[in-house]
């Protein structure tokens, strides 16, 4: 039995260890004076970048072999992954969000008991002897091939009739070093498989060295993904901790059967119980004090009482007054609709300053929903991939449906505020709370820092894979890259807090995988050399995507080279993303944060029943009586134009663009800007003109400002 309050563990968590976290041997030099590079009192300024420790470096040859897939990789300053993060930080990304890095139950920490892609196939056969009799794979057991080379060989002949890649991955995935980590074992100890020595205190020091490197060398604050809503197991199993200490207290029980609830995925916990709430408080305080974590992302936060989340935030703020919480405010399971307590769900979080992921903008831009399957994956187009304006072969979406998704996107870009007013597709002036989202109020926040806007994260298909499901087969690669950038712009240039999945800026693919939580390095790979995006490396796993194989094969065959990015395309998209981030960081008008300021200053044009489909025009006012030099002394206003259509917007009639000009960042980039697509965005006859599938930001100089407009919030050094 181990201690749920453990701060150090033996390999594979067999024993708890007593440790002094304040001992000098466990601190890298300079640890005690380490500070966050970004102040956290201006939460609207945050840009969150979601990463997984193993994805970050597992197969990057510029990282020292022993450090690949480890905490230590973040300290290798000249490696490609770290150089990539440094560029993002210079552009304006503020926070590195790490998927679970606490002790988890589903990775074997003993390196002698795991096998990874760079190791011999024969090693897998030793761990899985059944392979030696497999008709398709046994021959590799006696050769010298690595798993990587065998996967590469099988990829060339993979099909739904012979899905060998996912078959091989099925043998590998429970004996490799990969898992997302949503399988809590001990909440307050770093994960041992990410340390170069999992037995003992090495994991503690290397975790701190990672945090120090991210803050001091890369230039980002650190976010930790926490999973207090469930445990990996309960009862007397060997991966159970809490239930073996005080049975039936720390786990939430079904009121009729007495069994542990499992609506989360696994064994639900009971944070409504006082002593588990105390354990959570103490755990979070340890991560803030001893590991200098700046913010926390709460998994399935809606399964927690709001009062407990607020109390934990209060406890954390006693150590760091500017610590920030955000999470998944989904409403489901045995606690749904505040049945057992007032939950930390999307609508209940309004006014708390705690953020939640917005599925409103996500679904509007991507199309459909996260649980679509088979033909609906293609039929349900979204605002960012051509709904109504560039239909695919299965889409029958109407103009009204397309305009409704545009309204959801506009509201999302205004911070998804419940009190924000705008003209909807019918021509009526409504509040955000009056716009429908699947039978719910679309707008639910008081302030924009209560919203995480995103179009891709670790869950579900990557943005690139989702786009390929939806896009007209005939569209060229160049247009698909622009569609990716336009989709990302809805989050990056909106007033909510942008949340970006690692690799979205690199056109990242998981080979159409819907749920890659333990699908290993082959499907989850990120290539920071910008050579490959991991598209079409084999059909995804059958248990998650088997029913989608036919549509996947059709998409791959029909799109052909149009969906296969080359290095130049990946580099172009990376440049577009950095451009978008720099635009956001150039003016506080794009990060107003406070709901009252957004309501006062943000307006949408091209609205109502006669609007041009696929075009969003958002102005942010800072002129006349509204001018606030603390927001932007140099500008009287900004206009953001997103053209998600194949038709150029020519001399847009519904906005007077007198004295506006293309933003200096985009003007300087010229034909390398996302504002360029055959022609450049411009102001013609005091009217805005932008090319097809483009993003343009226009700025209006304040009358007292002379010379070129500056961008003091961007660090280009």
From TrEMBL:
InterPro entries: GH (IPR017853), Glyco_hydro_b (IPR013780), Pullul_strch (IPR011839), Pullul_strch_C (IPR024561), Pullulanase_Ins (IPR041111). Pfam families: Pullul_strch_C, Pullulanase_Ins. SUPFAM superfamilies: (Trans)glycosidases, Glycosyl hydrolase domain. Residues 531-700 form the Alpha-1,6-glucosidases pullulanase-type C-terminal domain. Its EC number is 3.2.1.41. One of its GO terms (biological process) is carbohydrate metabolic process. It comes from the Bacteria. Keywords: Glycosidase, Hydrolase. Residues 104-178 form the Pullulanase Ins domain. GO terms for molecular function: pullulanase activity. PANTHER family: GLYCOGEN DEBRANCHING ENZYME (PTHR43002). This is Pullulanase. It comes from Vibrio cholerae serotype O1 (strain ATCC 39541 / Classical Ogawa 395 / O395).
């Amino acid at each position: 039995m181990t201690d749920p309050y453990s701060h150090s563990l033996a390999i594979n968590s067999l024993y708890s260890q007593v440790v002094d976290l304040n001992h000098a041997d466990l601190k890298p030099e300079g640890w005690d004076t380490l500070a966050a590079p970004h102040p956290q009192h201006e939460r609207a300024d945050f840009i969150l970048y979601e990463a997984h420790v193993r994805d970050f470096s597992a197969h990057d040859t510029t990282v020292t072999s022993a450090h690949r897939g480890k905490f230590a990789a973040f300290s290798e300053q000249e490696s490609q992954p770290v150089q990539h993060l440094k560029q993002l930080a210079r552009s304006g990304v503020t926070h590195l969000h790490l998927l679970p890095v606490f002790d988890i139950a589903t990775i074997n920490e003993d390196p002698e008991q795991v096998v990874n892609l760079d190791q011999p196939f024969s090693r897998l056969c030793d761990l899985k002897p059944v392979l030696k009799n497999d008709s398709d794979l046994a021959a590799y057991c006696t050769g010298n091939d690595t798993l990587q080379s065998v996967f590469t060989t099988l990829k060339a002949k993979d099909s739904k009739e012979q899905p060998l890649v996912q078959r091989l991955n099925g043998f590998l995935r429970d004996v490799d070093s990969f898992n997302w980590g949503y399988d809590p074992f001990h909440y307050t100890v770093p994960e041992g498989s990410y340390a170069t020595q999992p037995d003992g205190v090495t994991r503690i020091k290397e975790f701190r060295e990672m945090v120090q490197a991210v803050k001091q060398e890369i230039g980002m604050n650190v976010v930790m993904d926490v999973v207090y809503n469930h445990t990996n197991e309960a009862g007397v199993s060997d991966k159970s901790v809490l239930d073996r200490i005080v049975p039936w207290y720390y786990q939430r029980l079904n009121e009729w059967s007495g069994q542990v609830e499992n609506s989360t995925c696994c064994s639900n916990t009971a944070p409504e119980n006082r002593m588990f709430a105390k354990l959570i408080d103490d755990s979070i305080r340890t991560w803030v004090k001893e590991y200098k974590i700046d913010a926390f992302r709460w998994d399935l936060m809606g399964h927690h009482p709001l009062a407990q989340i607020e109390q934990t935030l209060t406890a954390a703020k006693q150590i760091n007054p500017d610590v920030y919480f955000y999470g998944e405010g989904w409403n489901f399971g045995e606690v749904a609709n505040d049945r057992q307590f007032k939950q930390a769900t999307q609508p209940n979080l309004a006014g708390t300053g705690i953020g939640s992921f917005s599925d409103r903008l996500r679904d509007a831009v991507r199309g459909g929903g996260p649980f679509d399957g088979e033909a609906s994956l293609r039929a349900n187009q979204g605002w960012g991939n051509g709904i109504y304006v560039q239909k695919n072969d299965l889409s029958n979406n109407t103009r009204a449906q397309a305009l409704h998704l545009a309204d959801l996107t506009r509201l999302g870009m205004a911070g998804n505020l419940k009190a924000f007013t705008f003209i909807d597709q019918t021509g009526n002036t409504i509040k955000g709370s009056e716009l429908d989202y699947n039978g719910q109020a679309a707008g639910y926040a008081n302030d924009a820092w209560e919203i995480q806007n995103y179009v891709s994260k670790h869950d579900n298909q990557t943005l690139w894979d989702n786009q390929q499901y939806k896009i007209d087969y005939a569209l060229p690669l160049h247009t698909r890259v622009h569609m990716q950038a336009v989709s990302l712009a809805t989050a990056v240039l909106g007033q909510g807090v942008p949340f970006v999945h690692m690799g979205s800026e690199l056109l990242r693919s998981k080979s159409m995988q819907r749920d890659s939580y333990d699908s290993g390095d082959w499907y989850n790979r990120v290539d920071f050399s910008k050579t490959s995006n991991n598209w079409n490396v084999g059909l995804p796993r059958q248990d998650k995507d088997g029913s989608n194989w036919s549509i996947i094969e059709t998409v791959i065959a029909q799109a052909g080279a149009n969906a296969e990015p080359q290095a130049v395309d990946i580099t172009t998209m990376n440049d577009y993303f950095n451009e978008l981030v720099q635009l956001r960081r150039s003016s506080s008008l794009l990060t107003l944060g406070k709901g009252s300021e957004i309501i006062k200053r943000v307006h949408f044009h091209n609205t109502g029943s006669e609007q041009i489909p696929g075009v969003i025009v958002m102005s942010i006012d800072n002129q006349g009586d509204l001018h606030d030099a603390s927001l932007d002394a140099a500008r009287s206003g900004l206009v953001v134009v997103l053209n998600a259509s194949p038709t150029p917007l020519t001399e847009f009639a519904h906005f007077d663009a007198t004295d506006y000009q293309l933003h200096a960042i985009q003007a300087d980039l010229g034909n390398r800007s996302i504002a360029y697509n055959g022609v450049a965005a411009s102001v013609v006859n005091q009217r805005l003109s932008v090319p097809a599938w483009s993003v343009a930001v226009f700025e209006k100089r304040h009358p007292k400002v002379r010379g070129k407009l500056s961008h003091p919030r961007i660090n280009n050094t």
